Structure formats: C-alpha cells, structure tokens
Amino acid sequence: MWLVVGDYRNSVSAENLARRIRTGYPIGNRTDGTPYQPTGSYEVRTEAVEGGTRVHARYNPRKDNAR
C-alpha cells in the first residue's frame, strides 16, 4: 500500500527526500537515523500535484528478506 509522505513545493526537495528514503540515508539530524530501514526496503514514487510534488512510499518486505 502506497502512503503519502508529503507534498513539496519544490520538486528538487521532493526528489531529494525520495532518494533519501530509497537509500536509507538519514533524514534530518544524522544522529536520529531514519525510519526507512533497512536500506532498500522502501519503494518511492513522486507525482506532480497542484502546487508542487507529492512523495509516496511503501514498504516492500520481499526486498528486506532478499538480503
């Protein structure tokens, strides 16, 4: 199931967040880590919406179990 992460006015910001989710890179303060672990277990997509870009994410347990 795809869930909305958020809407961003700037598409570059949305794509940057999508990349961070996809790669498990920390979001915000590096010491806080990221909720999107293990790395590579989340799929991300973006879509243009009125006023910006929307980021969606979903957990893919098959990718997690493939490790």
Reading the helices and strands in chain order gives: EHEEH
Strand residues, percent: 25-35%
Biggest sheet features = 3 strands, antiparallel
How large is the count of helical segments? 2
N/C terminus separation: 22 Å
Number of E-type strands: 3
User: What count of structural domains?
Assistant: 1
* Helix-and-strand structural type: alpha+beta
For the largest sheet, list the strands in their spatial order.
Answer: 1-3-2
In percent, how helical is the residue content? 25-40%
Low-confidence stretches: none
Overall mean confidence score, pLDDT: 89
Task: Based on Cα principal axes, name the global outline.
Answer: globular
Radius of gyration: 12 Å
Structural description of this entry:
- This protein is of the alpha+beta class and about 70 residues long.
- The protein has helices at about 10-25, 60-65; strands at about 5-10, 40-50, 50-60.
- The chain has one domain.
- The longest helix is centred in the N-terminal third of the chain and has 13 residues, at about 10-25.
- The radius of gyration is 12 Å and the shape is globular.
- The two termini are about 20 Å apart.
